[in-house]
Design brief:
Two copies of one chain form a homodimer. With 418 residues, the first copy, chain A, is of the alpha/beta class. Chain A has a domain at 3-228 and 376-414: Rossmann fold. Chain A contains 18 helices and 14 strands. Chain A has helices spanning 38-48, 77-82, 96-107, 120-123, 128-134, 159-166, 186-207, 222-228, 232-239, 274-283, 288-291, 298-303, 305-317, 321-331, 341-346, 348-353, 394-401, 406-414, and strands at 29-32, 52-57, 71-72, 75-76, 87-90, 111-114, 139-144, 216-220, 256-260, 266-270, 335-337, 356-361, 365-370, 375-376. Chain A has a six-stranded parallel beta sheet with strand order 5-2-1-6-7-8, with helices on both faces. The first copy, chain A, has a three-stranded antiparallel beta sheet with strand order 9-10-11, with helices on one face. Chain A has a two-stranded antiparallel sheet with strand order 3-4. In chain A, helix 6 (159-166) packs parallel to helix 8 and helix 10 crosses helix 14 (321-331). The interface between A and B is large, with 154 and 154 residues.
Chain lengths: 418, 418
């Protein structure tokens, strides 16, 4: 780690006081006591929409995301995204004085999110029993690989492991290749989204449901994916179906695949509904596909996906992407080119939607990253600033809000508590 | 479609009154005016946690999911999952009398979710301007392929198209194969989760944020995925990185891959942190990997991923999965076998977590499907029943709650309004 990661925030630091935050969650107080992706990203979802998120990192060390690729000038660019919109403090939760300060923060918090191995917060004397006595309104979200209970609970859980465990890779990819893992942290980021959603369910129950109390929520990395794999369980239970890898086809949809254009672009098509299929056949000037008994309905097309794909592939192979796009536009056929990030930067729809925002950054002046999602028409979220330096808000929070004296602040720094 | 899909619900129908619903969202009133996956699944997330979800389908036709594979005895099994926990009515929103009844429902609703092509609800006279005059507290969630604005807004949007458009498939899969699409409806189900999350953000803003007003939320299918692809934008913006397909490796982690055991099982490993890597090397009895300068840290291991993967693959190829699992268990190495649904049904952790539940079903008595996620310790969600017959709750809702007379009810049925 570069030593200047530890430097105090610059004078031009892009922070803003919670009173200025915008978005539907303005006024919600959240502590991000997590590390790496799943817990912190749940907090970023809330921060993107105006919650006051205080993120806790280990003094001198910081979150591991600060060292994750891609790196520019010793700074992790990924950190700048996942750490955005948060106020940042350092605190050693394994030390008694750190635990006291944490409890002081918990007194005012609506939500605490953590994602250490099950048992860690209990070992620190910060289990739900303790925290809920301090603040009965607290919602305590625990994220872990395998959840807080069950025989594998104590195993470390990484996203890759959870993805493999969910069943989804077993039917993703090509049959002659290994089960395919996604190229982004799917398990972590889906679990993060479930965590933010669930936290707000619990806040609703506390405030509108009349209980007045928060609760503990146990989120694993594999269960959200397992939840989303819609008919996997019932299909096996009722019909003995074990889904298999079949490339970009789907057993239940045809045509559904990616096709290669003459100029080397991949285009995704999903045209299983009869109307969509017929539009596609006419656009390709192949009306005989519609009357061919093999392709008469989706079920039959699934049986004859090989010859159907051969017809479509041959047509694509003879044309450049721009020609195909124009034909499909006229015929109202929906086809999706596989974009890469270069394409995305020049796409007019991405531009019109404002999906890429330029954000104040303490190191590089401005950086571009994805905007908040989704779009609220009444109280939109926003990206105020990127992830900042370690302990950027220590002084504001420990002295300004928790009321430490300058002397205490300095001695806690010296002891490695903050 | 089988004609008995249209039969009235059986006497043993597994419905329950909203007063008996359990979960944190008890009391929340939701109208699912969507179709297929993204909108309806957002509503199912809310229904799983106790919201009273009234789902609207077209009379005599029903949601397209009722005809989606897998099918048993003319019944879609997928429908039974996505339609679970909802009260079901039929209503033709394109007819004036249908629009009146819809407005009557909207009066009491907290949230309406729809996912038709942008402009459809406006054409029916049911845009946000109209609905918010009827009920200013309403949160109106609009899900669409490309969002409500921008040059592609009017295009139909399917999950496949949105996935391709998000950029993720361009770096998922093997470099010598097409960009790989996921084997489950990733774009739809991630957008559904964002929708449920966002709806609760807006409810919080209405109730606790002091506005007292709901708002319109514009969710596209591609933006949630684009949001989750963490460093894609900033990596290109700051370093010109265009992520590429590299199978089950990740550019920034090594070792991270799937490895084949002697008995043909695929096992995922992600051991990029130094401690994890060293535990793996020792468990394989290959301490020289730790001292090999090519593998001294994660960055260097990424450069030399080929020889490192060769070492690990060779070790896996000589051993059965059970032997490897025992070695890793002793050495606290986390590795994830790629499970399929057969494995999942016999896995002790899935059993201990209660991830598969047996659910009352009007057609088949009981069916098994995935349980709700995540686990709430105070007010858990539950699966009360599977997706039921078309119009199962017409009588209860139109006569019992909206106060139609028997005569009106019959004539609306005859006119195809309900």
């Amino acid at each position: 780690m570069s030593p200047d990661l530890l430097a105090p925030p610059s004078q031009t630091s892009a922070g803003a006081a919670p009173a200025d935050f915008k978005g539907p969650l303005r006024g919600l107080k959240v502590i991000d006591a997590g590390t790496m992706i799943a817990g912190p990203l749940a907090a970023t979802h809330l921060a993107d929409f105006g919650a006051d998120v205080i993120k806790i990192e280990l003094p001198n060390v910081g979150d591991s995301m600060r060292h994750w690729a891609p790196i520019k000038d010793d700074r992790s660019l990924w950190w700048k995204v996942i750490g955005r919109n948060k106020r940042l403090i350092t605190l050693t939760l394994s030390k008694p004085r750190g635990q006291e300060l944490f409890k002081q923060l918990v007194r005012e918090a609506d939500i605490v999110i953590e994602n250490y191995r099950p048992g860690t917060f209990e070992r620190w004397g910060l289990g739900y029993d303790v925290l809920s006595r301090i603040n009965p309104r607290l919602v305590f979200v625990r994220v872990s690989g395998f959840g807080q209970t069950g025989p594998y609970a104590k195993r470390g859980g990484y996203g890759t492991i959870a993805e493999a465990f969910s069943g989804i890779p077993s039917f993703t990819g090509f049959p002659d290749r290994p089960p395919t893992l996604p190229g982004f942290p799917m398990a972590d980021s889906v679990a993060a989204t479930f965590s933010a959603m669930a936290a707000m369910f619990a806040v609703y129950n506390r405030d509108q449901g009349g209980s007045g109390r928060g609760q503990e929520i146990d989120v694993s990395l594999y269960e959200p994916l397992f939840r989303l794999a819609e008919a996997q369980v019932i299909g096996f239970d009722q019909l003995g179906i074990v889904k298999e890898r079949q490339g970009n086809r789907l057993a239940e949809d045809s045509p559904r695949n990616t096709y290669l254009t003459k100029d080397g672009r991949w285009v995704g098509i999903s045209a299983s509904s009869q109307k969509t299929f017929e539009r596609l056949a006419l656009a390709m000037e192949k009306p005989k596909l519609i009357t061919d008994p093999r392709f008469r309905d989706n079920a039959s097309r699934c049986t004859y996906a090989d010859p159907l794909d051969a017809e479509i592939s041959a047509w694509f192979a003879e044309r450049d992407f721009s020609e195909i796009a124009a034909i499909f536009e006229r015929a109202d056929v929906v086809a999706g080119p596989v974009l890469d990030i270069r394409d995305i930067f020049s796409d007019p729809h991405y531009a019109a939607r404002g999906n890429i925002v330029s954000v104040p950054d303490d190191d590089f002046g401005e950086v571009r990253m994805q905007n908040v999602a989704p779009r609220f028409l009444g109280t939109p979220g926003e990206v105020r600033h990127s992830g900042r330096a370690l302990g950027a808000d220590n002084r504001e929070i420990f002295i300004g809000e928790l009321g430490l004296s300058e002397a205490e602040f300095s001695s806690l720094e010296a002891e490695g508590v903050i």
